[in-house]
Predict the 3D structure of the following.
Amino acid sequence: MCGIVGAVAERDVTPILLEGLKRLEYRGYDSAGVAVLRAGHLERVRLPGKVSALEEALAQHELRGHTGIAHTRWATHGVPTENNAHPHVCNDSVAVVHNGIIENHEPLRAEQRELGYRFTSETDSEVVAHQVHRHYETSGDLLRAVRETAADLEGAYGLGVIDVEEPGRLIAARSGSPLVIGIGIGEHFIASDVAALLPVTRKFIFLEEGDIADVRRGS
Ligand code: GLU
């Protein structure tokens, strides 16, 4: 289990996400990635290797956005490659970072394949992105889609989820893998460890097992 950082703010969140990942590097990891929402679409950069390499790639891509998630991966399912690095994306709209292991990823993948979802990684985590998308299609509400997805998952997870349809919103879920919410003024954050958020806040809410949080700029 490795690192998660997320942010919803009025300013560009990319530097906050990157600094957060650097502060989680001590845990060890094999890949890193960031996804942000920008002007109605999703932008993502991910790489096997160090956060410093990600930082260079982000500068080249001029990645900027007000809502975003980031991850350092410690591979459990699938070797460390760009395709296996998080965030995982479904249909260019839902992006997910996941810490932990989804035990029932095989039956979920089989079901999703039947429904026409295409897989681009070997990870257990990619099923989460497709499952959120699947539920979102029905309800049109990201919190509800993540809650319904959580009910479908077996295993351990900390999740951060964003969707192009809902800029300014970040859903976090905890089951068997720690997550905290960082409280700012007009901006809020999530992380798998308080250390990631110390440059931006000293106020935290520690999620408990089974908690799902709806994080927005103002609440
Ligand atoms: N099981 C996931 C993967 O292999 C997440 C690993 C992690 O917690 O970093 O991608």
The mean pLDDT is 97.
